[in-house]
Amino acid sequence: DNETGTAMHRVKFEPLQCRPRSAGYTNQSQELFYKGHIQEAYYLGNIASTLDPENFLAEQVLGTIAKAAHDFPLAIKHFENVKKINPNFYSGRKILAICYFLNNQYERSLEELEAFDISDRLDIEKFDWHVSWGKAKMMLGNHDEAINHFTQAESFSSPGETMTGPLWALYLWWLQSSFMMGDFAGMIPQLQKIVTKEPQDLSSWNNL
Questions:
Q1: Whole-number mean pLDDT of the chain?
Q2: Once rounded to an integer, what is the mean pLDDT over residues 24-51?
Q3: CB 3.0 to 4.6 Å from 146: which of 56, 57, 117, 138, for a disulfide?
Q4: Do residues 108 and 138 lie in contact, with contact meaning Cβ atoms separated by under 8 Å?
Q5: What is the CA radius of gyration of the chain?
Q6: pLDDT value at residue 116
Q7: Measuring CA to CA, which residue among 27, 47, 26, 29 is closest to residue 38?
Q8: Do the Cβ atoms of 80 and 96 come closer than 8 Å?
Q9: Rounded mean pLDDT of 171-182?
């Protein structure tokens, strides 16, 4: 009958009608987050996710908000949803691994890093991936493997790259792993790289 037909039409087409609204709420949520309106951003992100449960970008925004608030279990929940909806989404998988690490779940972080194929990713993405991989290995006491990943990460950096945040962090983690395994001689090459790129870094000069 007409009533049944109307109900079937509503069930069939409402999700499609919700998707543009969900995308709009996702964009608004992200804008509010960048402006520092955390609660409002999370509220709109939830609306976006409710309107379209397949909107993995809404879950990505919600996870990013939770991560920024240092609520790592909640962030993990959202990034696991991203993975469930779109398992090939690089950014979601990368940040899920980071959130596991920040939540002291180093083995889960490694599982995530090892399960994702980065062979066709950009060099900068391979750099980030190997740094995260090395950090997780280091926290589990596998310093030789950690340094192997730090070495691979360095190979994906630009030869003329200045001592930016990511490269600086790489050398600091590398130094820490060498120190923890008692390889003090192994620290010297990393310190030399730092002072070559940053001659004014007195602390690195003092440690040479």
A1: 85
A2: 94
A3: 138
A4: no
A5: 22
A6: 87
A7: 29
A8: yes
A9: 90
Copy the structure tokens of residue 93.
């998988």
Tokens for 115, please give them: 């399960």
Q: Are 56 and 82 in contact (CB under 8 A)?
A: yes
Q: How far apart are CA 174 and CA 56, in angstroms?
A: 34
Structure-block tokens of residue 98? 């980071």
Q: Residue 123: is it exposed, middle or buried by C-beta count within 10 angstroms (0-12/13-18/19+)?
A: exposed
Closest CA to 180 of 140, 149, 123: 140
pTM of the model: 0.80
Q: Could you tell me if 74 and 43 are in contact, meaning their C-beta atoms sit under 8 angstroms apart?
A: no
Handedness of CA 162, 167, 169, 172 (dihedral sign): negative
- Residue 32: Cβ within 10 Å count: 20
118 CB-contact burial (10 Å; exposed 0-12 / middle 13-18 / buried 19+): middle
Q: Which residue has the tokens 């959202």?
A: 78
Structure tokens belonging to residue 85: 């909806």
Structure tokens at 1: 């009958």
| 3-state helix/strand/coil string of 84-139 | HHCCCCHHHHHHHHHHHHHCCCHHHHHHHHHHCCCCCCCHHHHHHHHHHHHHHHHH
Rounded CA separation 130/138 (Å): 12
